[in-house]
Amino acid sequence: MNITVFGANSLVGRQLVLHALTKGWHVNAFDRDVTKLIDRENDNFTPVKGYLFSKDDIKDVLKKCDGVLCALGVAADGVDKSRSVGLDNIIHQMQANGIKNVMVLGGFGVLLDEEGIPYMDDEEFPAEWQLISQEHLSALQKLKNSGLNWTFVCPKEIFKADADNHFVTAENHLPKENATSSGNIALYMVEHLFEDTVNEKVIGIANN
């Protein structure tokens, strides 16, 4: 398999690269800064310096690609549109190149609470998380309209740690209030990238 990881230098992105390489896949690691990425001497690893807002950069990295993993970071100020606009560029180039499978890191604000209401619509939802949740929602809407085999993976919080396989998931809901390790998120995304069972689903994830 030949895959591209967008946001490869992010907390989850680095773990995505590691787990994809462990499976023997060829990994194109796309980011603005690729100088700190691991496995630079691995024959299956290709660091690609590029910009999400550049259609040509994305078009080039997706040539002969089988699947896409997105761990795009975004500031919480409401100005940074890296996730929604960047994902829009990725979707268009995937469509143009006939690439169907994509896993995207989202946020728990779009998940449903016990009453079936999105967390971000609850009056007690933290105001400082509202703008970034709007970005997640915009990204999700773009995926729903894309015609791709997409999955939106949503933790509540992320902490830096390797995978230990001790996590749980739930469709449309947050399975636990726990934070999730970057390694476990990446493990789930890599293992399910080409699985039809999670196509067009929003998945909540949390450490067990």
From TrEMBL:
<protein>
    <submittedName>
        <fullName>NAD(P)H-binding protein</fullName>
    </submittedName>
</protein>
<dbReference type="Pfam" id="PF13460">
    <property type="entry name" value="NAD_binding_10"/>
</dbReference>
<feature type="domain" description="NAD(P)-binding">
    <location>
        <begin position="7"/>
        <end position="195"/>
    </location>
</feature>
<dbReference type="InterPro" id="IPR016040">
    <property type="entry name" value="NAD(P)-bd_dom"/>
</dbReference>
<dbReference type="InterPro" id="IPR036291">
    <property type="entry name" value="NAD(P)-bd_dom_sf"/>
</dbReference>
<dbReference type="InterPro" id="IPR051606">
    <property type="entry name" value="Polyketide_Oxido-like"/>
</dbReference>
